[in-house]
Amino acid sequence: MIPAPYHLYLGHSADPLGIKTSRGVAMFRPADCVGEFRHDDCPQTLGLPRLGMAEAVAAGAKTLILGIAGAGGKLGADLVDDAAAALEAGLNVASGLHQRLRDEPRLAALAEARGLQLFDVREPPAGLSVGKGYARAGNRLLTVGTDCSVGKMVATLALTRGLQARGVAADFRATGQTGILIAGEGVAVDAVVADFISGAIEQLAPARDDDGWDMIEGQGSLFHPSFAGVSLGLLHGAQPRALIMCHEPGRPHMRGIPGRALPGLAECLEANLAAARLTSPDVEAVGVCLNTSGMDADAARRLFAATEDELGLPCTDPIAFGVDPILDKLCPAPFARSTTASR
């Protein structure tokens, strides 16, 4: 386990999506967050105290979370310098980037000299098997999206907590760096060798014989040329009984690919359902989660209504408006008891 409390790293980030890991940890584990570290040119903030490394240690922090994400997931020179400063101040360092902290000689040497730890979250478990797609018992929900970073993790966590509040057993299954840092466990599926993606998810959410739900965090999008392979492996390995479509209205293009438009909701939903049917023939769509943080409340409500009319599914913003409309559809029959094993 990564020692808490945490100091959250924002660095030089100018892109709000670039700090989504730090933001997610602050949102869902606020009691474990001491402060934020950002340089003078960083316009982003999580509303936490802005602390230097030594100040964070004095405030009780145990670990610096390098909660930024960028294309390729590499450790830049500034990031290495800041991680080194954290180690010198007495902080462990945790990262979800593809490039491993332990492979940076300067950081490895500092950690060893000071008796501190480096945590590389994107480390797939050993002994993974290829997926088989055999029917397995249990209720599983997977969030899917029109693009990357549209709120799949947030929706999954909100729905998990909503089910738990209703007395329904529900377990969040993290598949990305932010989710793993929040949950304390999971599989960083984008670090898994392609042949083993579906098998990794079968292992993450195995058969269960109660009435509970495995709530599986989605990744990427079937329509994103860079990450569709991960999304497809998740669909097959999750063997979901239920899908939630996630989308950010007004996004001008696929993240990182100017000029490539996002798919329409109906088109994207049908593509995901078709792919999911390979391992879950009876899969259903049960709702739409929109990130309306850039809209006023009245405009968001109008969009919810229009989306519900178009798709025939409950639609909400899980943070601003809650998840009750979707849970009202998810909790009653036919989802009260899984029948997957009998098919």
From TrEMBL:
InterPro entries: DgcN-like (IPR011669), DgcN-like_C (IPR035086), DgcN-like_N (IPR035402), P-loop_NTPase (IPR027417). SUPFAM superfamilies: P-loop containing nucleoside triphosphate hydrolases. Residues 131-327 form the D-glutamate N-acetyltransferase-like C-terminal domain. It comes from the Bacteria. Residues 44-124 form the D-glutamate N-acetyltransferase-like N-terminal domain. It holds the Pfam family DUF1611_N. Gene3D superfamilies: NAD(P)-binding Rossmann-like Domain, P-loop containing nucleotide triphosphate hydrolases. PANTHER family: DUF1611 DOMAIN-CONTAINING PROTEIN, GLL3100 PROTEIN. This is N-acetyltransferase DgcN. It comes from Sphingoaurantiacus capsulatus. The gene is dgcN.
